[in-house]
Amino acid sequence: MGTNGMVKVDLPSDDARPDHPRMAIEPSAVTECRPPASADIFPGVGFRIRREITRPSYDASEMFKDFELADISDHLNRLYTIDPTIRCLAGNSKRLAGPACTVKVYPGDNLMVHKALDIAKPGDVVVVDARGAKANAVLGDTISMKARHRGIAGFIVDGYIRDLSGIQEMDYPVYARGATIVGPLHRAPGEINYPVCCGGVVVNPGDIIIADCSGVVVVPQSCVEQLRVELLRHNERAAAYLEGIPDTTHLIVVAHVLVAPGNALYRTIAAICSFGIPAKPGIFSIQRPQLASPTPAS
Q1: 268 versus 12: which is more confidently predicted?
Q2: pLDDT band, very low/low/confident/very high, at 256 (cuts 50, 70, 90)
Q3: Contact call for residues 190 and 105 (beta carbons, < 8 A)
Q4: Which one of 4, 113, 204, 207 is separated from 60 by 20 to 30 angstroms, measured CA to CA?
């Protein structure tokens, strides 16, 4: 054993085995081994956990239930919408909303995702920053089952998942870039409840995540109240605007068509009317051209 804790193995020189320049190490020759120093994990930045964060006192799902996700995105000036390639892969029967429990992992490793199940509170949305890595999944149906049992609302993963069919059977909300059958490792560093980047958006612990089949939006915790006020005003303006639009239960086509009955446009309009769609009087008019009387031959 060397002074640095590494195994020292005496190998024959290449001159002693001219017919075999590289000799393999026999398993019995290695009596003790440790990972190389480059594999050491250092406590601190990159390997840390914050157990307590500031969470909102309100129910995020209830607070934003009356607002379309596109309107929320618009009122955040379209800067807090996560990359649309991170999409709903399971649990699309309900909207996902709740405060973020953030997780940063080394690509292809999910040690900290497992630990996050002990840190996240019921109602949290676990946001995993896996740098969009495709080689390995960072969670599957086992983690999803445990998370659902503990009341965790769902996952947003900037990376890949696996066991997709099993997660879909649970109808548990999981958003990710895609799925692979290749599983993760469980040995790398990571962080829990520190800022992460997910789909191009910085997510801080406690920020509100709202997601459905149309996309994922991050609402910074500092602007939740102001945003809700603006969205209520928007809904009021939209309702007033829609009241001024004519009744759309009728076919509203403003047209004054001057065509012959055999014309293609005429046939199209006649086909629409044949479906029995009511048209308001005076809105739809077809006028046949008046053909000039033939001039008598002189």
Answers
A1: 268
A2: very low
A3: yes
A4: 113
Tokens of 156: 């947003």
Q: Whole-prediction pTM value?
A: 0.72
Dist CA 85 CA 106 (whole Å): 20
Tell me if 201 sits within 8 A of 58, measured CB to CB: no
Q: Which amino acid type is present at position 180?
A: T
What is the C-alpha to C-alpha distance for residues 139 and 153, in angstroms, rounded to an integer? 15
Give the pLDDT confidence score for residue 40 in this predicted structure: 78
Task: Give the pLDDT score at 36.
Answer: 75
Neighbours of 96 (CB within 10 A): 23
Structure tokens at 149: 């049992």
**CA 196, CA 127: separation in Å to the nearest integer?**
8
Alpha carbon separation from 256 to 163, 267, 268 (Å, rounded): 59, 15, 14
Q: Which residues have CB under 8 Å from 50's CB, separation 6+?
A: 192, 193, 194, 205
Domains and CATH numbers, the chain: 47-240 (3.50.30.40), 255-287 (no CATH)
| Separation of alpha carbons 238 and 151, rounded Å | 36
- The bridge status of strand 125-129 relative to strand 154-158 is parallel
For residue 159, pLDDT over 80 is answered with yes
According to DSSP, residue 185 is labeled B
pLDDT-derived band at 58, boundaries 50, 70, 90: confident
Tell me which residue of 210, 73, 68 sits closest to 153, measured CA to CA. 210
> Which residue, among 47, 20, 179, 26, has the nearest Cα to 104 in the 3D structure?
47
Give the pLDDT score at 79: 97
Identity of the amino acid at 172: Y
